[in-house]
Specification:
It is a single chain. The chain is α/β, with parallel strands linked by helices and 308 residues long. It is built from 11 helices and 13 strands. The protein folds into 2 domains: 134 residues, Nucleoside Triphosphate Pyrophosphohydrolase (Alpha-Beta Complex); 164 residues, Phosphoglycerate mutase-like (Rossmann fold, 3-Layer(aba) Sandwich), CATH 3.40.50.1240.
């Protein structure tokens, strides 16, 4: 059976220079990137953040996905590891609780070139090279716009009232709880919801977990979209200008247009394929990664997560 794991290239700026974090593992006596196995019930972004905290004492939010490695372990099982970039703030460094232990003997910050020479495994080096490519292009510092479809709601034909007043089903309430950890892994600071009750209920558990006040807006509501009064472009433009990770919770017909407007606002090409990334199942979300320093450079990466 395949073992899934997740980790990150943790990075920070020290004296104007980019440095990445390698861990010296106690038992394996090797040098690697922080990572760890998926626990039951977890999603991969959640695993990456948890494992980094456990191995390094650092609290991080995930940035751009850097790809996947796979290899066969000594027990002949395949291991698949997903990696992201993760910027480490000075506050996180100061608050780190790391002490050497029977898993990790030491942490070491070093330039990427030195890290490439020091790391024990070629597969990890390939991930570092992908991060170096972002550094070379000046695109390592990022924020994200997360386009989220509401969870399962009572069907219109079973509800006697306004469409915008349809609540979540029991399944939908469970879905809203299940996506909290995955959404939180990307460090959202802003949550905007359609005024429809089903959208508000979907983001409520995440907002509570993060201590964020949800702001409701008709600009991304399905009713407004269908009657021609929505203002998706304005809402997306605000999110791009703000340059902090934001969640936009909306509806199936609206999400492809949100994706398209993000592409237009950032000068991205391939509008049709980007719009298709908005075709999400209920409680699914697409994370659109943008450059904090050069948002006009276009979409850097897109990743989609759906409920299991």
């Amino acid at each position: 059976m395949t073992v899934f794991a997740a980790g990150a290239v943790c990075w920070r700026v020290v004296d104007g220079k980019i440095k990445v974090l390698l861990i010296h593992r106690t038992r394996h006596k090797d040098v690697s990137l922080p990572k760890g196995k998926l626990d039951p019930g977890e999603v991969l972004p959640q695993t990456a953040v948890r494992e980094i905290a456990e191995e390094t004492g650092l609290k991080v939010a995930l940035g751009v996905p850097l790809g996947v490695t796979n290899y066969v372990m000594p027990n002949h099982r395949e291991k698949v590891v997903h990696y992201w970039a993760a910027e480490v703030t000075e506050e996180a460094v100061l608050n780190s609780t790391f002490v050497p232990n029977n898993e990790v003997a030491a942490l070491e910050w070093m330039p990427v070139a030195r890290a490439l020479a020091s790391i024990s495994y070629k597969r990890d080096a390939e991930i570092l090279k992908r991060f170096q490519a972002l550094v070379d292009d000046g695109l390592m510092s990022t924020f994200a716009i997360i386009a989220l479809r509401h969870a399962k709601a009572i069907p219109a034909f079973d509800f006697d009232g306004r469409d915008s007043a349809r609540p979540l089903t029991h399944r939908g309430e469970l879905e809203a709880q299940s996506i909290v950890a995955g959404l939180s892994a990307f460090g959202p600071a802003v949550i905007r919801s359609s005024t429809a009750l089903r959208c508000q209920q979907t983001v409520a558990p995440t907002a509570e977990a993060l201590g964020i006040t949800v702001k409701k807006t008709d600009s991304i509501a399905q009713d407004a979209f269908e009657n021609g009064t929505s203002d998706i472009r304005s809402q997306v433009g605000k999110r791009v200008r703000r340059r902090v990770t934001s969640i936009l919770c909306s509806h199936g017909p609206v999400l492809p247009e949100i994706m398209r407007e993000v592409a237009l606002a950032t000068g991205s090409t391939k509008l049709a394929s980007i719009s298709r990334a908005g075709d999400l199942p209920v409680a699914g979300y697409t994370v659109i990664h943008l450059s904090r320093d050069r948002p006009g450079a276009g979409i850097i990466a897109i990743e989609t997560h759906v409920p299991r």
